[in-house]
Amino acid sequence: MVNKFWLYRLTFVVIAVIIGANTILGKAIPVSSQDSEPTIYRDLAWSPDGTQIAFTFGSDYTDSDIGVVNVSTGIITNLTPEMSGRQDWPIWSPDSQHLAFVSTTFESADLSQVASETWIMNRDGTEAKVLGETQSVKLVTVGFSPSDDTILVMNEVVDYRTRVYRPAVLALDIQNVHHQRFELPTSGDLTVLALSPDGSQLAFVTTTGSDDSIWVVDYTGPTFKNAEAVYASKHWISYLGWSPDGNFLIFGETDADYSIGVFKIIDIDTGEPTLLSLHLPSEARFPKYAPDGSRIVFSMGDPSDPNLWRIWSMDSDGTELTNVTTEVDGNIHTDVIWSPDSTSIAFVVTTTTEDYQIQSSEIWLIEADGSSPINLTPR
């Protein structure tokens, strides 16, 4: 069985691809040779106007860039060719005109000492600038406020590889006028955080090692208030996401030996949980609502082969289970995102050995019903 560390890192970190060089902004995206490490792609983010998909790419954990691929033309652009260190976690502004991301340099051989900054740039990579102060812990972008004027950033502190975070959030003004830090009211460590579609609430998961809890806090301008724990579990809460109307939270819940794997939703007003999927046929992770609320996509393993994962979808009530990527090669399909109009999904196809050594992978686009698959990054 695939272990917890691998799956969590796989969805957010491990995505490799071998592509032809694209010379943009004076620097070519590198091509992996047979003797070099494969280029890792991760952190897919679809622009709200539907025209581009942003991503992180690089062949080394400490050195990566932010790129975009035009969905219509397939042209790939490196937006940060002159920046050193690790650039990751790109997020789009609501008007699709800006990208925010995190830039990190590692100042010790064991990668324990870092200098991390939040940056913002135009969608073409121009006019990049730092927001706020340099932090001595790894940062992760969370989202823009709907008004485009504030970016929420989460501090990482416990373990950058397994993604356990300090319970604090930074609110950065994109005009760089001010920034505020908010300590979340919990004694546990953060593992997941999600901003509601209208930007008015922040949901997060905390863990004490034996218990996981889901919290919701109101966010108004630069202030947070009315924090409330809405759900507690003895199992691992592996993902957290909002429904498009902001009324529900969806999450995955799995026990330590993976004998239980279910999706649940919580009504924000009542706090009542509802079982969304009755014991899926295999281990499943990271459910995401379509923007129109009609379907949910997720990555699920093959019960007979722990090295085989596909993208599946189901109706928002948990019915009509469909294997979306059955016709696409590669053994691990993950990092799935919806198009803004809910008609298509993009995802990463990774090919690995039996012991999970990455050989190659690609970014693919497919219709929501599984038709018309397109490789956006052909070799």
Can you characterise this structure?
The protein is an all-beta fold. It has a domain at 1-183: Neuraminidase (6 Propeller). Helix content is 2%, strand content 55%. It is built from one helix and 31 strands. Strands 1-4-5-6-7 form a five-stranded antiparallel sheet, with no helix packed on it. The chain has a four-stranded antiparallel sheet with strand order 8-9-10-11, with no helix packed on it. Strands 12-13-14-15 form a four-stranded antiparallel sheet, with no helix packed on it. The longest helix is centred in the N-terminal third of the chain and has 9 residues, at 4-12. Residues 1-35 have low confidence and may be disordered.
Oligomeric category? single chain
Summed over residues and divided by their number, the pLDDT gives a mean of 81
| Helical residues, percent | under 10%
Q: Regions with pLDDT < 50 over 5+ consecutive residues? A: 1-35
- Please indicate the percent range of residues in DSSP E strands (runs of 2 or more): over 45%
CATH A-level architecture of the domain at 1-183: 6 Propeller
Fold-level CATH name of the domain at 1-183: Neuraminidase
Task: Characterize the main sheet.
Answer: 5 strands, antiparallel
The CATH first-level class of the domain at 1-183 comes to Mainly Beta
Number of contiguous helices = 1
Helix-strand makeup class:
mainly beta
Number of DSSP-assigned strands? 31
Strand arrangement in the largest pleated sheet: 1-4-5-6-7
CATH homologous superfamily caption of the domain at 1-183: TolB, C-terminal domain
- The dominant shape is globular
Distance between the termini: 30 Å
Calculate Rg over CA atoms.
19 Å
